[in-house]
Amino acid sequence: MGAGHRNILIAGAGATGLAAAIELARRGFRPRIIDSDVGPVPLSESRALGINARTLTLLSPSRAADAIQQEAYRIDRFRVRAGKKVLFEIDPSKIDGRFPAIQVLAQGRTERLLLGKLSDYEVEPEWQTVLESVTGTMDRPHVTLRRADGSREEIDLDILIGADGAHSIVRKAAGIGFPGEEIEEAFYLADYRYPQPIDPRYVEISLFNPGIVGRIPVSGDSVRYLSTLPDFESRIAHPVPGGELVWAANFRIHFRHVARMSKGNVFLAGDAAHIHSPAGARGMNLGIEDACWLAYLISEGREQDYADLRMPAVKTVLKQTYGLTRLVTMHHPVATGLRNFFAPLLIRVPGFARRFLRSVAGYDTPPPVWIDGAQ
Ligand SMILES: Cc1cc2nc3c(=O)[nH]c(=O)nc-3n(C[C@H](O)[C@H](O)[C@H](O)COP(=O)(O)OP(=O)(O)OC[C@H]3O[C@@H](n4cnc5c(N)ncnc54)[C@H](O)[C@@H]3O)c2cc1C
């Protein structure tokens, strides 16, 4: 059977679903990709900002990485401070390989660039199309789609990819649980646009007792402030006056992952399979990695290996983000004092900064075996 003859549906055209569609299409498959929304995430409501080196490696064969590299902002300083004192600074571009450990691009732009690449392969998402139900056996899933005009379509599939986010219908229909925990602290974010250019090349985390305020560039004139403190806006050091608040949100952090990322020929990828805190900027990157591995395994006829191959990577990333989250949400003054004392010492321990940067780069999960020389 030729590659294009397998009937594949991708539910969800977020970053994960789009990456799956690109990687399948460039290998000769003709997947359908649907999304309940009217289009990609609005530019002003971009959750993910950090794109790591592993993602750019994975998106190199399709050249989507080139498009992202052209627009992304290079970060040359990651700074952690406590009050006026700089605890340490690290340069994310000081890592072996083709790409800096991390760059910044608003998720809305990343998704639009992925959409552009997908249309080069003549695949377009079907917007305003909801995956309503999944029935039949999970070996040969039968799905019902509903369009905006109310019309319905029933299809039998060879493969169903659930890239439909944290509340995944696919996951629920497959009867796969989503165990984990919600942590006590809420996180708050505020994106400001300024009337003059700002310096987009550095990320800064300011530690308070307790709490943090993170400063992450969104673009050449916009900054995101991310905090664990409800009153954090009074602690923002705006780079220039006249900033306009363009997006504010607060959210609670969950650490959850499925026990198994597939059932029969139903596969879960991205937030449908795992969610965690934004500390470390890993969520979207991990979803894109799932998608690229799944497409590769489908092309090799080895998709039944997907769940076993991906789970160690998911566990590694959840463990890393959990540790980082606990570091920034510490309350006890003794604990925060010890953290602030040891952080600058630890970063000078030989090999520590390199290991830290490799995990920021996403190089702490198995490299893609289909890309020559990938780390
Ligand atoms: C504040 C914040 C900051 C973050 N920063 C980073 C970062 O810097 N780097 C990083 O890598 N990650 C980051 N993340 C995480 C990242 O945003 C998510 O991991 C990522 O969006 C997951 O992508 P996805 O495609 O798997 O899911 P989603 O982006 O949730 O996409 C799922 C898609 O499925 C569609 N859908 C849902 N149900 C159906 C249905 N029944 N039928 C059809 N379509 C459906 C939805 O409309 C949606 O388009 C951050 C998250 C937050 C909250």
UniProtKB/TrEMBL annotation:
One of its GO terms (molecular function) is oxidoreductase activity, acting on paired donors, with incorporation or reduction of molecular oxygen, NAD(P)H as one donor, and incorporation of one atom of oxygen. This is FAD-binding monooxygenase protein. PANTHER family: BINDING MONOOXYGENASE, PUTATIVE (JCVI)-RELATED, TRK SYSTEM POTASSIUM UPTAKE PROTEIN. InterPro entries: FAD-bd (IPR002938), FAD/NAD-bd_sf (IPR036188), RIFMO-like (IPR050641). It comes from the Bacteria. Its cofactor is FAD. Keywords: FAD, Flavoprotein, Monooxygenase, Oxidoreductase. It comes from Rhizobium gallicum bv. gallicum R602sp. Residues 8-187, 241-298 form the FAD-binding domain. The keyword Oxidoreductase applies.
